[in-house]
Amino acid sequence: MKNVELKNAIIEFQPLIHDIQKSREDSYEIAREFRKFYTIKALESMPFEHYALGHYEPADGSPLFCYTIEHKLKELGKITGSTSFKFGVYYGQTKSDPVNRNRFVKRFGSNFKEAYRNVRNEIIDLVKAGKLKDTRSIVRNQLSPMFKGKILTTFYPNDYLNIFSNRHLDYFLVQLNLDNNKILDSDPVLKRETLLAFKIKDPQMKLWSNDIFMYFLYHMYPKGPDQERTSNDSPVFPNIQKPVWVDLDIYKGKKTSSYTRSNGKNKDYEGEARRNKLHGNRGEKIVLEMEKQRLAEVNDRPDLAKKVHPAKYDYLGYDIESIELDGTTKRYIEVKSTTARVGETTFFISKNEFEKAQELTNYQIYLVYEVTSTQPKVCILGNPFNPQDKKFELTPISYKVNFKSQKK
Predict the structure, then answer these.
(1) Could you tell me the pTM of the whole model?
(2) What is the number of other CB atoms lying within 10 angstroms of the CB of residue 98?
């Protein structure tokens, strides 16, 4: 399940890092000055006038807390787009009341003064928990998720990732095949931790700052969810995919194909191969999770689900190693993926995969249809090549060619 496109993007990105960091140095300096000023002691005595949006800059030149977090540091992660109620208390207007006045979120108190005191205490608790990397306390903190995330990365840029939109977090998790139902239903704090764990596992990305990693995700790979894309870009998988098992016999007679008619231009074979590889990676991810779920739900056997894992090496000739209900017999799964709808279709199988299908007992092919849809369909074909199933027609389409030049 190696993503060649990701690795190529990393290589392409490396020479750009120095200039990107230099262009963001002003923001880094603002963040440093902000941290230097807002010590725990300063937070404990922070007056509302230093906190709230809508007030003028303090006479002593100290940074406004919310204004700096949201606007002056927007290059280091945006939390704009929602109302000022995300700050718990603020000074300003609402849609129904155009008069500027002190306002507060009721969960923080029954009056403005009490609410501000509680909001300030939550900020102090968050900064302390962030220093200790106390994930449980961070998740339980009552500040709004985006505001909470921006505070953490402003105070501790080396420990927390500066992506704050839950929709964007889901998007990156899905495109990088890091998603499952548990993580997508979890708190944004845990989603950011999952992305950072992914970063740290890569020998090159682990050397990047978290801000540079964020920049890479939005601008290089897989690119931001709201960016315009061309036909040459990577496929985009929806944030919520609910795959289902299907019986191919139900669709018997329906013909479909992922073949695209030529438009008269030269075919982009390289781009097509890249997209097919990413479709394949996504299909493997879908089958892996569904296979675990299938086993866990049968007779309440979560122990069997733990035995499902990706194949360690590509040369093994299959993608996933699973287990039968007896707990001992292995199931070797080769996954094929297509964007086509369910029906008769074409897929490719390598010489090595074909030989493994004939050699290994309990070798099975899982076919994933509509892999880029919100509801991919997964069909278990079994082993159509041992013995040869007449419904499956094999057509040789390539030859290995060795070339030997002659010395003059």
Answers:
(1) 0.81
(2) 8
By the 8 A CB rule, do 190 and 135 touch?
yes
- Residue 94 CA to residue 79 CA, distance in Å, equals 19
For 253, the token pair is 């007679």
Residues 6+ apart with CB under 8 A from 326: none
The token pair at 371 is 């892999």
Judged on CB neighbours under 10 Å (0-12, 13-18, 19+), 26 is: exposed
Residue 159: both structure tokens together: 């420990």
* CB 126, CB 155: distance < 8 Å: no
Q: What is the dihedral of CA 92, 95, 96, 100, to 10 degrees?
A: 10
Number of separate helices (H) and strands (E) present in the chain? 16, 8
C-alpha–C-alpha distance, residues 133 and 213, integer Å = 20
Query: 3-class DSSP state for residue 72?
Result: helix
pLDDT in tens, 52-98: 866 566 666 778 999 999 999 999 999 987 788 999 999 888 888 88
Rounded Cα–Cα distance for residues 217 and 205 (Å): 11
Whole-angstrom CA distances from 196 to 30, 191, 203, 318, 379 are: 24, 9, 13, 29, 34
Contacts for 33 with CB less than 8 Å, ≥ 6 apart: 63
